[in-house]
Amino acid sequence: MCRWLAYSGEALRPSTVVLDSQHSLVAQSLRSSLGAETVNGDGFGFGWYPDDGSEPALFHSTEPAWNDRNLRELTRSIRSSLFFSHVRAATSAPVQQTNCHPFRYENWMFMHNGSIAQFHKVKRDLTFAVDPSLYPHILGTTDSEVLFHLALTFGLQDDPVAGLGAAIRHVEEVGRGHGLRFPMQSTVAVSDGSTVWAFRYSSEGRSRTLFHSADVPTLQAMYPDAERLKLFGPRARLLVSEPLNDLPGAFIEVPESTVAIVDSSGYHHRPFLPVA
Amino acid sequence: MCRWLAYSGEALRPSTVVLDSQHSLVAQSLRSSLGAETVNGDGFGFGWYPDDGSEPALFHSTEPAWNDRNLRELTRSIRSSLFFSHVRAATSAPVQQTNCHPFRYENWMFMHNGSIAQFHKVKRDLTFAVDPSLYPHILGTTDSEVLFHLALTFGLQDDPVAGLGAAIRHVEEVGRGHGLRFPMQSTVAVSDGSTVWAFRYSSEGRSRTLFHSADVPTLQAMYPDAERLKLFGPRARLLVSEPLNDLPGAFIEVPESTVAIVDSSGYHHRPFLPVA
Amino acid sequence: MCRWLAYSGEALRPSTVVLDSQHSLVAQSLRSSLGAETVNGDGFGFGWYPDDGSEPALFHSTEPAWNDRNLRELTRSIRSSLFFSHVRAATSAPVQQTNCHPFRYENWMFMHNGSIAQFHKVKRDLTFAVDPSLYPHILGTTDSEVLFHLALTFGLQDDPVAGLGAAIRHVEEVGRGHGLRFPMQSTVAVSDGSTVWAFRYSSEGRSRTLFHSADVPTLQAMYPDAERLKLFGPRARLLVSEPLNDLPGAFIEVPESTVAIVDSSGYHHRPFLPVA
Amino acid sequence: MCRWLAYSGEALRPSTVVLDSQHSLVAQSLRSSLGAETVNGDGFGFGWYPDDGSEPALFHSTEPAWNDRNLRELTRSIRSSLFFSHVRAATSAPVQQTNCHPFRYENWMFMHNGSIAQFHKVKRDLTFAVDPSLYPHILGTTDSEVLFHLALTFGLQDDPVAGLGAAIRHVEEVGRGHGLRFPMQSTVAVSDGSTVWAFRYSSEGRSRTLFHSADVPTLQAMYPDAERLKLFGPRARLLVSEPLNDLPGAFIEVPESTVAIVDSSGYHHRPFLPVA
């Protein structure tokens, strides 16, 4: 599986959270506390929206993140107000740049932690359910990228919550047709460049962890001496696979079957595909 | 497109032809005389049948062959009586190990120079036509690997000439359905570990070049002072995209619409998908 | 050897010249017209000064530039007013990120096309001559990086022209002590983040090519219909191994034994290590 | 630091111990029990002596060993009677093929787990102590490769125990001159193609772990039902950083300040640089 983070807020150097936190994403690549795997060394990705409103840019590498010099250089040299980063622990798909997250389609970015169960059994059915006009945009061979293109097929760009919901329901239907009990395991992040949606859902109801950061002004009031908190503006929000530090109250777990949303109004969440 | 060579005969160090010929395959990677592209620097592959009769082993790299140290080490340290090697000039599929030739299925190896025209348009239809049981074995994203799996679908393992012939006819039928005039361009090498089949065929009747080496005893008689020829045994045969040296008579062009076959009886060829 | 370009002027997307010119640096990586080698596929580098005045950032890759997706993404997503880019044709040093140009020391960037003759013979003497406090900053194994550290040793940061001049004289002295007639072949670019110095010099007086771009307002007046010229501001200046297009007057050769300087006053040049 | 293994004995597929043991070297790359680091994902190497008595061949990769397909292919397809393999956890030197072990000089192979303390401080002194004729053979930038070339300088080829002993004493002398209390930490393996020497030594007397395998006929008698033991011939011997399985008696710790030797007479060991 994998670890990821998504940031939205005042522009800052991505290295602040990708590299320099107590349990930064790069630290998690070598030693994750809450992940299904301890080591997430099978490549990584970093994607950011340039401030001029153009499509997101992607940097993908097959190297482990912990020793990659380019990632250090890049995340210390740019500033961004919306970016994703992901470290991968490959399940079955090969370690190659086209299998690194985040994925992109026009102004949309997508990344995933989790898996489609027994993907080799259902891959063909799921891939052929992707809209033929989207099919040529699949560049790699992961379950995650197929899930993204299914979500696009089912209307992600019009309504991300409905689109991903329908995609997951389709994955579950196909999976159950192949005799799988729990076809879907996921935390997913999606953005259109303005809003970030983060989904925590699994067929089993035992999903990978997902956290959101607390309100920064509140945190700063709680910890007036915490120098590091001064790096963040009042609108800064993180969605993360696991907390970036041990500061009590800094990261709050997102419940099961929930979509967490960060937009100009701040953070809120609501049920997503709840079990009846 | 690409350049490739296939060797069958007495066991020898593959470096003899991969690295050390006047126009070795590695030399061709940097400067090809007859190829559609001068530079074939988008990864390479080397596959060989171990002498114990087991499945072929593959070495794939995304680096240009001309500076790759591992290729030098490997081809200078083993001996093999049947091996393939391929240097790639990527058309559209990304440079990644899973897109490097040769490809393998059980005891079969396959490599390709050429392309399926407008592959992004026909990829979905062609991939759909692969037998569902073979579909999960497609690891990369090239037209070549789809062609191989189509040939397997159409019976390559029972009859390589009929199997690849039917696959190409299918590619042409699908391509023409998409309005393409010349859907297929190819020279292909296939082996089961005993026989090597090399195909030269294109829909247009203007295929990439293909050559076979002359009979070694005859060559040795023609050039009694040629020290290098003494490296080769009497059964040694090469099938190559372009000649490995300038020695008159050493390499003979294989005609259009032809399958060249090297087996225990030596070299022969016959028509393949001839224009009516 | 190699090909490189340096840009200074109004902030623009580096892709404008790295990727999108008629003979962009990436195009030259696959087919250079004037270089000592046609193919420069042994890795590449891109270095830029962020607009906040911090140290330059580096992106290095061992892949050929022509198919590298990260280079496309990065140079299309940032804007920079001073950047270097370099494509490498390895002479003897291995293809690895630490051998990719540009090199950096504090706020200085350095890149090189050319070579120190018979480097394996003189490497020990030259490396010994590097100031012991600078020695640990040598990360790779190229002649170019040793030349940079020799120039730093001889005062590059105080006076780049004198510092590099003294370094080259030292290389020549050591080389001649080893019986070499023409120890140095170079075009070098150096910057401190404000000024760019580009040197054309070889012991033989037959240096690799070096060009500077013409004054942009003059060019725009000459070619009022050239849409592409409108991408450049009035202070834009390029220093390049070979012209990026075939537009007459757009690129002007820098003479032998010359240092070309681009700073806030525009372009000028003066003699560098002239033969007596 | 790192993990390594050395095999000498009847020819076998290296995958037997590199990939397929309970705690194979590749398993250790992801999760080492006894190593200074849990993860050894910064590249790996495999070196083997071909059966024709020629120089050893090397395969080096910067990828983590656990997902590398080429390592699987290679070690499953050849057979060798003497091979080394190493997985790396980089301390300071970059992740690049030239920093992967084993290193080679003529018919000698060398690999190392451990480090020279504060290498950046002593690197210059140690490097310039290497014989000038050997200096150009240093290809990478690790402390380990410098140690190998110092040992060659001090006579490794004539007497490996004396040569490495003198090299370590020199490292200690230089290190103490720089104020270091414990300059050397090491387990080292060396071979000339016939004998394997494995050294366990550290200035502090608290060295990284080192084990040798038990006599195979004895083990087979102890565990008559152990199918896996039947893969090994009576002369098979392993020297390893940590045991490859949990079988009681299968691996025996080599004492501190000891050189373990495997040759045609079997296994024996003797003191190496013992504290007075």
UniProtKB/TrEMBL annotation, chains A, B, C, D:
GO MF annotations for this entry?
transferase activity
Q: Which residues form the Glutamine amidotransferase type-2 domain?
A: 2-276
Keywords, alphabetical: Glutamine amidotransferase, Transferase
Question: By its UniProt entry, which Pfam families does this protein fall under?
Answer: GATase_4
What highest taxon heads this organism's lineage?
Answer: Bacteria
Keyword rRNA-binding in the entry? The reply is no
Entries under InterPro entries matching the protein: EgtC-like, Gamma-glu_amide_hydrolase, GATase_2_dom, Ntn_hydrolases_N
> In its UniProt entry, what is this protein called?
Class II glutamine amidotransferase
Look up and give the organism this protein is from: Microbacterium lushaniae
